[in-house]
Amino acid sequence: MGEDLNMNWEKITNQIRVLFGIDVRSLALFRIGLGSLLLADLIFRVQDLRAFIPILGFCLEGSSSKNFPSQGTFRFTILMEPLFLPVCFFVYVFLWNLRTTNFSTFSKFFPKKINGIAQIFRIDQKWNMFSPYPLVNDGWFVIPGNLKDGSQVDLMKGGREISWEKPKSFDETFKNERWRKYLMNLYKKDYSEHRPYYAQYLCREWNRNHRGAEELERLEIFFMLERTLKDGVAPIQKVSLLEYECGKGNKKEGLIKDESNKDE
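Below the sequence we write its predicted structure tokens.
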């Protein structure tokens, strides 16, 4: 019974993808976004409603206030003024950026514990791409793979001949932007534990379409590091990140060498 339900659910989701070109998660995000817009619209419409606390009791003002006393009352309108929230967000973002100039000093007045406000409304700022200095490390990947017949192929280029030369365009070395981001993260020390999984993926994908003498036995992931200096570009460094043997049961068994500390 459970398997039948799963199969029916898969058929439904596949039909949704075919009809709309999106998956169920995208539909869920669309609904959340639509709900947020409706909620925001309701919040801004509340500004048409004003509350009074007269001496004799509590009442609500609709479109006109001529029937209510003008003295001895208190209005709940400050949070609903059209410019109040934008001004608050502007001040918040200004203080956020001011704190980045000297975190130890300005964090006393703008503590880290109120970062959640920025993260909820996505007004958080991050300028480390440009300041205090731009990124200085760049490079490209070369992944030699040793086949059973003794030949070598470049797995980064779909099995073409190995080349250590700098590519004319880095964009051509990645399938798309997501792969570029993923691979550049693999170079970093913080993501080094993911390298064996990527090597395992390369082995599985190559051997799925190649048999016999063309099967992949071993691979090594190199990063050709190009570092920008103040007075030019440093000589390119050939950094070995991982050496992996295919055909093992799990990532640890196939691991031959893992240079986890090489991320600079």
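The longest strand covers residues 216-229.
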